[in-house]
């Protein structure tokens, strides 16, 4: 029997009697990161990284949480557990599970480039590696973050010169925080949607030093709205909430913007291929870095990616999960009235 089983609730370690990122309530849940498709309400006990705990508290409310640091072993029914940086968002972890000389690593979501905020991805040696494959096609190849940030800053400066607001559509947890240092270099007037403000406050209260933002509300002076830089979740697109910033341009920050014409189909003015997931090259680099004999691909282009791995000599397969893609499709459950 393998150390990790693929059950109808999630990744299950029978020997340790725990689940990793379960999508149904269980007794004991180990959480890779705080995105809503990986961290769900209803389990009795939660284990996560220290930086993920305040995010779970903000998103899931009061529960029985235990948090640990990087590479700090804990044992559950004799099974050794350690967490290692995934580089996806703040607090995101790969979970290493070891028993009887067998080692599995469940990656959750990850990216290879160090964004200066989420921690540097750390390849972890293992026998079996479970990898995401959100962008598991060769067409996905990211520009360096510095280049993308420069493009965003140039776009904001252009809009400022034309008297327009700049509205950046970005997921409230991860992308929004990653954008702040970039925007702060061109303006100190950063406005955010309530969903993003909630996450921002949770991180500030946990000790994170992030650029100052202002929550958009009915009391926000009109003088601040005009010509402002705004970060909003995709749930705000096309809503009456946007009208208060007119005239404005919309820029979508997502890996899907890599595909030609994607931002036009979204009725946006600009698209920036800023992703919190690994691109094709990054996925391959991660797999090779683990030295794994077996690789299982989950959500994304898992069939194409696993087929390619088999062609390269890996023992590879696919795993069906209920994880989504927070880049554009996962509902933002942190949203609050604007």
TrEMBL record:
It comes from the Bacteria. InterPro entries: MBL (IPR050698), RibonucZ/Hydroxyglut_hydro (IPR036866), Xnuc_lig_assoc (IPR026360). It is an enzyme of class 3 (hydrolase). Keywords: Exonuclease, Hydrolase, Ligase, Nuclease. Residues 319-338 are annotated as: Disordered. Residues 326-338 have a biased composition (Polar residues). GO terms for molecular function: exonuclease activity; ligase activity; RNA endonuclease activity. The keyword Hydrolase applies. The keyword Nuclease applies. Its EC number is 3.1.-.-. NCBIfam families: Xnuc_lig_assoc (TIGR04122). This is Ligase-associated DNA damage response exonuclease. It comes from Paraflavisolibacter caeni.
């Amino acid at each position: 029997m393998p150390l990790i089983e693929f059950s109808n609730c999630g990744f299950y370690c029978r020997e340790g009697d725990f689940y990793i990122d379960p999508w149904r309530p269980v007794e004991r849940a180990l959480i890779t990161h705080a995105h809503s498709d990986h961290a769900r309400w209803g389990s009795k006990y939660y284990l996560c990284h220290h930086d993920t705990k305040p995010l779970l508290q903000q998103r899931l409310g009061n529960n029985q949480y235990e948090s640990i640091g990087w590479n700090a072993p804990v044992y559950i029914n004799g099974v050794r557990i350690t967490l290692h940086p995934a580089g996806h968002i703040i607090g995101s972890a790969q979970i290493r599970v070891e028993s009887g000389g067998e080692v599995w690593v469940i990656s959750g979501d990850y990216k290879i480039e160090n964004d200066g905020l989420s921690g540097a991805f750390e390849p972890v040696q293992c026998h079996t590696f479970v990898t995401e494959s959100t962008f598991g096609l060769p067409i996905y190849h990211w520009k360096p973050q510095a280049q993308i940030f420069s493009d965003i800053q140039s776009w904001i400066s252009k809009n400022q010169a034309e008297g327009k607001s700049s509205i950046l559509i970005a997921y409230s947890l991860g992308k929004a925080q990653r954008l702040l240092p970039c925007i702060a270099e061109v303006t100190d007037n950063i406005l955010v949607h309530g969903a993003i403000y909630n996450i921002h406050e949770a991180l500030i209260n946990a000790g994170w030093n992030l650029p100052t933002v202002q929550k958009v509300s009915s009391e926000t002076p009109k003088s601040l709205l005009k010509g402002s830089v705004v970060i909003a979740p995709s749930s705000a697109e096309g809503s009456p909430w946007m009208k208060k910033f007119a005239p404005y341009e919309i820029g979508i920050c997502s890996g899907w913007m890599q595909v030609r014409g994607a931002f036009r189909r979204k009725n946006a003015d600009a698209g920036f291929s800023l992703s919190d997931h690994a691109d094709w090259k990054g996925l391959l680099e991660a797999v090779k870095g683990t030295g794994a004999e077996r690789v299982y691909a989950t959500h994304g282009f898992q069939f194409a990616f696993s087929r390619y791995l088999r062609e390269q000599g890996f023992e590879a397969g696919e795993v069906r999960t209920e994880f989504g893609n927070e880049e554009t499709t996962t509902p933002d459950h942190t949203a609050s009235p604007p």
